[in-house]
Amino acid sequence: MRGERAVVATIAGAIVVPAGEKRRTVYDAGQGRDLPGKLVRGEGDPATHDAAVDEAYDGAGKTYDFYQKVYARNSIDDRGLRLDSTVHYGVGFDNAQWNGRQMIYGDGDGKLFQRFTKCLEIIGHELTHGVTQYTAALAYSDQPGALNEHFSDVFGILVKQYSLKQTAGKSDWLIGAGLFTKRVHGAAVRSMKAPGTAYDDPLLGKDPQPAHMRSYKRTRSDNGGVHINNGIPNHAFYLAATRLGGKAWEVAGRIWYAALTAKLSSRAQFGDCADATFEAAGNLFGIGSAPQHAVADAWKAVGVPVSATVLAGEPRLTLREVALQPASATQLPAEPRARRSRRRRIS
To answer: For residues 72, 311, 214 and 149, what is the CA-based torsion angle, rounded to 10 degrees?
Structure first.
């Protein structure tokens, strides 16, 4: 996948559709690994009665609608990118992935994981990697990589909340709820509400995510712990969203969207994200507003305080203008290395 993603920057312009026009295409790999596979459903076609095909189609549509209706974003790249998906990829493939130009879904091994199209937040998560690719282009290692995963979790859960019309207080804040088979002792792959509690299983081990910087994991595996340490910013978003209450995509989500699309650079650290979201809250809702206080308190609670200079009203970062406007395409992030552990899934 790494080589394929590196080539995508030169051809991305060829797979766009007119502005404001949804275009979903689903292919079937037939347990092979050749992409994209056999065309099985296009935009406007009736349901196929293949659960994976129809879930991929519906999930892509719900994610597209979320970004378009909530943030006026024209598909993943904000230029009308066609949403292509391949299902039944590989034999027992335990993952879902945005490869730089399309979605790929495995059916799971049936022992630990079920099909990866089953969870809407996973579809929203993976397609958000595409949004990040065309905006902040966060590097896929260490803290920038954890932020890359963090933003995918944030907007993955918001896609689910938006679809279910859930308030922050009603959401389960789980990523991959229902993905495990009944053999696994666990509720989901990750918990934004309580990182480190999503699963505790003899084979998978215990959820390793920290919720605070004092427990930050320094490791060479998992690209520097991108699927582990994203629990820290995930929890900050949960705290901000639940403190503000109501529909999380309207205030907290809008703040995080502005930070991702207009403020962060590819090597952003957790502190940069705290500063960027604090400044975005002030830009969008007013200096000293309740949203800005909620953001500052949330980051402080996870051990990543907003910097003193930003609190004093002096931007520390070189910032682009904050606005919910089209963002230009930027360089592609590196593809994550193959994972040896089953516990950190969902690329």
So the answer is: 10
